[in-house]
Amino acid sequence: MNLLNAPRETIEQIRSHPAARNLGSVENWSEEQFYAVLAHAYDLPFRRITMAEIDANAFHRHQAFFIRNGQIPIKRLPDMLVVTECEPWDKKRLQDLLQEFELGIKRVLITQRNYDELLGGLSRYKPEAPRIVEPAETPVFFPNAAWENADVFHEIVRRADLMRASDIHLEPSEGYVRIRFRVHGNLLVQRRLTLREGEEVIKSLKLEARLLASSVGTFQSSRVRLSLPHGKTLDLRVEVFPTVDGESVVMRLLDFKSIDRTLEQLNLPAEYYSQLLDSISKTSGLVIVTGPTGSGKTTTLYTVLQHLNSKDKLAVAAAETGHLVFTTLHTNNAIETLSRLDRLGVDRYQLQTLIRLVIAQRLVGVLCPSCKTGREAKEHERQLLNQFNIPCQPGHIVYEKRGCTRCNGVGTIGRTAVYSFFSPSEAVRELMGTDCPILDIIRKAKEGGFKTVLEHALKLWLDGTASFSEVHALAD
After folding, report:
1. d(CA 235, CA 353)
2. Residue 138 within any structural domain of the chain
3. Averaged pLDDT, groups of 10, the chain, 476 residues long
4. Which pLDDT does position 230 carry in this prediction?
5. Could you give the angle at the alpha carbon of 173 between the alpha carbons of 154 and 5, nearest 5°?
6. Neighbours of 290 (CB within 10 A)
7. Does one domain contain both 281 and 313?
8. What pTM value is reported for the model?
9. Which of 89, 294, 354, 453 has the most neighbouring CB atoms within 10 Å?
């Protein structure tokens, strides 16, 4: 098997994947074995495609693009394009497809040999004579007609809000400006504007955000409160920055009503819920919420503070000599927070006495109930569960994402948080006050029942809430 096309990090990823455990050295795999493991690693269907299954006319209509991108169209649905894929590690291929067709994309993994066979068959295929048809409306998600005679900037924000988007991207390219919404973590192409239309939208945005309209070569940022036509008010965090093709814009939609929830709505496991209530009932100490950008830290903190305000506890805590302090950090897991604070020069004694609770969290997509597909849990997946003492019987049905019109072809609707709580026991606190390595503290915490974010996520996968591909990514 020739692995020259696969980057080193991909080879390392599949070499260590549970599906590759009994296959020996990766250099000795057959082509089918290589792609079978790739299918597990990237959560893609893998099978052989025949000439009878592909859309040869669609291929010839976009022949230059598909050959350049190394893909072949299988089927075009009203809201989705199904294509072959040989190199799933190449993210640019997927981005090019989204940009070219402005459709949801579903990829089917095939071997390089299968692709070469199909390409050879297509070279001998005679496409049908073109038919005169009415031009198709674009974009996929909203018809162009509704944009006419509208304030395009406000219309973009209104539609982003309707789709529950967290971000709006205006991206200049050669000859046009692309609009994309980030919906549940996925960037969805909405439509393209002409360069002139794009300039007008950015001019309107700058006016609303009180930015310098004449400044086009420097980074600018601002916040703006926008009243939408249906009476809703949104706060936007706006960033405008220069690129080679023009000004690019990212807008974060901040709807604080959407994070106005109770502690119960954080979907915490019962043991974590009890730990949280116990920690925030204290009148002093430090509660840290950690995770990457966009992992829901603000929502968690805001919810906790709302709970304290409703119980009249916050004012009491602030009146004490010691205060109960809430903060965030960007670390990969709960206990790594100790290493970060240690490197920052925080005294070990302070860590020992001040830390009440460290919450690590991530977001995973919630499977679309309309299209998620069931299958039996595989042996290597049950072995992973066994490592964490999570029971799973042979034949247990789990679910994976597929994609439909309801979820815009991405397979998920919304996201939910998965957590890891570190609330130091007395034994762990004793170690925290010594000069022992952080690894010793981690070991002692695990002996006391500390669980990772991955363990919580695996349980969501088992009960049909999340897909294995998203859950397994948390193991990296």
Report:
1. 38
2. no
3. 64 82 82 87 89 88 82 84 89 79 83 87 62 36 43 84 86 88 80 87 89 86 82 86 90 75 88 93 89 85 86 47 80 79 80 89 90 89 89 91 74 89 90 82 86 93 90 77
4. 65
5. 125
6. 24
7. yes
8. 0.61
9. 453
Task: Tell whether 136 is covered by a domain.
Answer: no
Structure-token pair, residue 127? 């496409």
Give the burial class of 151: count Cβ atoms within 10 A of its Cβ; 0-12 exposed, 13-18 middle, 19 or more buried. middle
List the alpha helices (DSSP H) in 313-449. 314-319, 336-343, 348-354, 379-387, 426-432, 438-447
- Domain count within the chain: 3
Statement to judge: residues 445 and 407 lie in one domain? yes
Task: Locate the DSSP E strands across 4-160.
Answer: 73-76, 80-85, 104-109
Burial 346-378 (b: 16+ CB within 10 A, else e): eebeebbebbbbbbbbbbbbbbbeebbeeeebe
3-class SS at 305?
helix
Same-domain pairing of 193 and 179: yes
Name the H helices within 210-291: 270-280
Backbone angles phi, psi at 434, to 5 degrees: -110, 180
Q: What is the pLDDT of residue 3?
A: 53
**Domain that includes residue 194, residue range:** 144-255
- With contact defined as beta carbons under 8 Å apart, do 34 and 3 qualify? yes
Say if residue 232 is in the same domain as residue 276.
Answer: no
Please report the sign of the dihedral spanned by the C-alpha atoms of residue 144, residue 150, residue 153, residue 155. Answer: negative
Closest among 328, 307, 309, 324 to 264, alpha carbons compared: 307
pLDDT tens-digit series, residues 196-227: 889 889 988 898 888 888 888 889 999 988 88
Tens digits of per-residue pLDDT, 38-62? 888 888 899 999 999 998 888 888 8
Distance of alpha carbon 411 from alpha carbon 384, whole angstroms? 24
Query: Cα separation of 340 and 346, whole Å?
Result: 9
CB within 8 Å of 113: residues ≥ 6 apart = 31
**What is the separation, in whole angstroms, between the first and last Cα of the chain?**
26
Pair (322, 394) in one structural domain: yes
What amino acid occupies position 204? Answer: S
How far CA 20 is from CA of 13, 16, 39, in Å, comes to 10, 7, 11
Structure tokens belonging to residue 309: 């305000």
